[in-house]
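Below is how a single chain appears once it has passed through the pipeline. First comes the sequence as given, then the structure the pipeline wrote out for it. We keep one example in the README because the format questions we get most often are answered faster by looking than by reading.
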Amino acid sequence: MPNRLAHETSPYLLQHADNPVDWWPWSQAAFEEARRREVPVLLSVGYSSCHWCHVMAHESFEDEQTAAYLNEHFLAVKVDREERPDVDAVYMEAVQAATGQGGWPMTVFLTGDAEPFYFGTYFPPEPRHGMASFRQVLEGVAAAWKDRRTEVAEVAQRIARDLSERSFTHGGDGAPGEEQLAQALLNLTRDYDERHGGFGGAPKFPPSMVLEFLLRHHARTGADGALQMVAETCEAMARGGIYDQLGGGFARYAVDREWVVPHFEKMLYDNALLCRVYAHLWRATGSDLARRIALETADFMVRELRTPEGGFASALDADSDDGTGRTVEGAFYAWTPEQLRAALGDEDAGRAADLFGVTAEGTFEEGASVLQLPGAEADPELRRRLLAARAERPRPERDDKVVAAWNGLAIAALAEVGAYFDRPDLIERATEAADLLVRLHLDPHARLRRTSRDGRVGSNAGVLEDYADVAEGFLALAGVTGEGVWLEFSGFLLDIVLDQFRGENGTLYDTAHDAERLIRRPQDPTDNATPSGWTAAAGALLSYAAHTGSTAHRTAADDALGVVKALAPKAPRFIGWGLAVAEAHLDGPREVAVVGAQADPLTDELHRTALLGHAPGAVIARGEPGGDEFPLLKDRPLVAGEAAAYVCRGFVCRMPVTTSEELERELQP
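Resulting structure:
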């Protein structure tokens, strides 16, 4: 019999709807019931494509005896961290403070007042490697609750009080300058893996936001070392196992420092961010490899993640059926020499094994290899045949929920890649996703809902990253299409940011002033897998101010960048998008108005030149003379009856230009 999760929209929660555990979704009703029954709450947080979340579910939550004990002694609450990043952030902070590490599945025991008192992540069904079994943990917590409840309550209250007193106060300190950005670059250079690219050791995550900073720093200063780190890292990832050499798109991370063996889940946000990085690398260098990866990643997102409603799904799972009924991580992607022979025949299989690094010993598990491309470019015909053979395998499950923030990132990437490489179909896909967000996720008061699925909007309020990343996507779309309505929509969203998410001295919070109250109001300025809401908001506010001249939005951006000034010299790897925004801030950012007839080839040429310019964070408006869709077009006439481009920077405007060569010079550092 399904439990209370059966009516949720989250695929992750629905995966647990038939568990014998009597799960509740996060709700006030759940905590009221826990208080009525006088039992502690087991909070389990995960997400659909999380491998170890599935493992713990199969081992423990599907076990009848474990479920019976859990139902008797606890009230169980299941949360999708992608739907409720606020809940996840608050309790992950507690887990990390208590244990020194964190991850998913996250397992936290709470009082009926939602105060945490015991923490962990994955627990095995039997004691293993010094780790208690899940049943032992349940029994220990139940005994403590029964015999030492006063002590448990005091611990929980102290933890909740400590969490509630934490906050960042670096807003309003001013944006970072040359000194802080130079120190950030120096520290990144020290962390750089000169042999394999990327930063640090294993596991190794794609450093998309740091790469964006380095690209912008090179564009502004000409620093060759910054560009070299980007080029080497992007090539290493593109040729490694973290990149799908057949179907395109990137996995979440590599378990090794050489980028060989990935954790195979594919996330929308990784691919959107990396798609944009490779496109910007091509813009800076003309690299054929960067062009190919940008286009293949864009095509992967459209082919594999686009939903019937026009949005983009969150993720593909790491696990799938290996053809024998077993659910195995990476089964869809890894190859043995025998599988190559079955797909290609002996002669072509040998050629493919050499090309993609498939060996008898294997680079993964059970003699299988993850495809790499260490040498020459891939043979298109071999790729086509292997992709067709792979399509016959059981596919990984897809998390179909549409997350507003991640769709904002995808809109920006697809719009720019479509413009750079003359792919109007990608711009159309970006526009359709933007239409969905406006039509379904945005209410009449410009308040965002975070998720939807199958055309049904979820109940969870948007958080700061939703407003900021959607605004960023709309601003990029406005610059590419010349449709000012997207600038207008971004303004609606950013006005909500100013009204609902700002604290004293320009600090920002992850949840709105009128959001559900948790034991702590989440507030994290550091970039992780995606730009933090804080730094994403700083970037969108800065761009919107450049478009409109709004002092309020510019001041808010300046204030928000104070945290980047504080963190950049010490932890540049965790404030990469903030550093990228700071580069735009130092450059102006520059404002480009292209004025000309819609169907005029010169207008198109100037617009394309502006889009391909390297000036960090430049904003672009295109329209006919007298058009009122973009404030930047106001009082910008044609020049001698011809299309023209106007470039302004720091409240100073240059003379208009009428050739692409002149415009290129205006956009140089």
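The mean pLDDT is 93.

See the next section for the split statistics.
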